[in-house]
Design a protein that fits this description.
binds iron/sulfur cluster, globular, 4-stranded antiparallel beta sheet, Rossmann fold
């Protein structure tokens, strides 16, 4: 007869008893009360630091991910959206879905209660029959024709930050065109 918090402690003890190098923690605190959540996250953080274990923390809650994460990978409908250093991505997200997700994080500051949030309309797609091209295109405010037909490649949009979005592929192509033109002009 264990409580939710006690069960999570048992699960953590079972996971670390063999002294692994790497732990996958899939939504470890999503079913717990807010007060227990902090306790469990603190235990995991201590384990991470004391035993030098690497964690893959899977969550829908970005505000808890900040406890652990040096890097973040944001996925949409089972596919890569954006990856990079945690603070960098959360402070300045590039992918339109990442921007919408970060806009949706609850803000406890009462002075911001009337601030309009730019959150993507609609629902995630049915994964049994996902939309063609970019899976986010039916909800994306920046969708272009190519987004509806062709899946975008992953590009390094800023040093260390990778994005799967045609916006950044187009920017890079334009940049390359400008650079080529300047080289042609100089020669
Ligand atoms: S590829 Fe197109 S639809 Fe997908 S996120 Fe980028 S701009 Fe939006």
């Amino acid at each position: 007869m264990l409580s939710g918090g006690q069960r999570q402690r048992v699960a953590i003890a079972r996971a670390i008893i063999t002294n692994p190098d790497f732990i996958v923690a899939d939504e470890p605190v999503s079913m717990l009360d807010a007060s227990i959540r902090v306790e469990i996250l603190t235990i995991l953080k201590e384990i991470q630091q004391r035993h030098k274990m690497a964690f893959m923390y899977i969550t829908h809650d970005i505000s808890t991910a900040k406890y652990f994460s040096d890097y973040i990978l944001i996925m949409y409908a089972g596919q890569f959206a954006e990856y990079g250093p945690f603070r960098d991505v959360v402070k300045n997200p590039l992918h339109p879905y990442a921007q919408s997700l970060i806009e949706a994080i609850p803000d406890p500051d009462p002075s911001n209660r009337l601030r309009e949030r730019k959150v993507a309309p609609g629902e995630p797609p049915n994964l049994a029959n996902p939309p063609p091209g970019c899976r986010f295109h039916p909800r994306c405010p920046f969708a272009m024709d190519i987004c509806k037909k062709q899946e975008p490649p992953v590009v390094e949009a800023r040093p260390g930050v990778f994005v799967k979005c045609w916006l950044y592929v187009k920017k890079m192509i334009n940049l390359k065109e400008i650079q080529t033109q300047s080289i042609l002009t100089l020669t």
